[in-house]
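Hi R.,

Here's the input for the flavin mononucleotide complex you asked about:
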Amino acid sequence: MELQKAIVERRSCKTYNHHTTADDSIIKEMIQLASYAPNHGMREPWRVIWIKKNRLAEFAALFADHAFKNDSDKKEKHIETLSQLSGVLIVVGKYDRRQKQFLEDVLAVGAYIQNLSLLFHESGIGSCIKTPGVLTVPGFNNALSIAADEMIYSLIYLTDADGSAPIKERKNTELLTEW
Ligand SMILES: Cc1cc2nc3c(=O)[nH]c(=O)nc-3n(C[C@H](O)[C@H](O)[C@H](O)COP(=O)(O)O)c2cc1C
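And here is the predicted structure with flavin mononucleotide in place:
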């Protein structure tokens, strides 16, 4: 797929109302390829936890327990929704207390996530980056064995690319100024 077309046509797929599956070998391949993202000092400051289809309900319950507390209706709905996905990727990165290194790592992880998004798009897998508040809840991090020098950057929901997701036009395409 041509790069320019992939950049414009990649979009966040946010409809999770039917069961989807994805080939395990493709997910593994995409995770390997995404690691060619630029990163300073070759720190490669990312790792990915893969929640496969058969563990989605369990993961959704963990998420709900930390996000919705005692709201059992919300929990049931959340389990139902997430169970339809092909899988969830949890993108974990270094949490470097040094400001410069932290900025570099955030930028590198962003590049890594965009690589993944484009690769999934090219492979016909729908994806959406998710950054719910629960990502910073200590109990949620503990349950996922996130280390003290790490943080969760995002979840990536995997689904199918059913074509219903709109391509959103961009407004700020002409913001180039000269100095
Ligand atoms: C850092 C980041 C965090 C995001 N978090 C969420 C989120 O929590 N929930 C969600 O539905 N979409 C989330 N998105 C997806 C954006 O809503 C989406 O990229 C944006 O609307 C543009 O649409 P497009 O990706 O289809 O071009 C996130 C995207 C980025 C880059």
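One thing worth noting: Strands lie at 46-52, 87-94, 125-130, 150-160.

Cheers,
M.
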